[in-house]
Amino acid sequence: MKRFHVHAHVEDLQASIAFYSALFGAVPTRHEADYAKWMLDDPRINFAISTRGGKPGVDHLGLQADDEQELAELKARARAADLALQDEGETTCCYARSDKYWLTDPQGIAWEQFHTLSDVPVYSESRVEKAEAGSACCAAASQSATKACC
Phi and psi of 66, rounded to 5°? Predict the structure, then answer.
């Protein structure tokens, strides 16, 4: 079963953690100095906030697959619909190692589709960040300077 994903940029991480913890009735499942994530089952969502990236607000949306087969099904659906996808493959971003790719809707909204493989102790080690020091960690960032990851 897939999980809806939303990543938003915030200016004040602690104030935002307090707000979303009250809203969701739960503390973050992951909390770093620049990032927090809630993995909720009701509603089934991966909601992440960070102080990295562009102006405050929603950065990107996504679908998190529970396994590689589910991710392959999502990718096959995108290809069958002839949607342009940017395959990032296995990458490290947002304190997680994931297999992922990106789609962009007609309005320019980035959609991440991914399967998380493991947690890691660093925010990112992606090819994009290595190629462009200081840039955001996601492949979508190479298309839009305001995009960040996860």
Answer: -80, -20
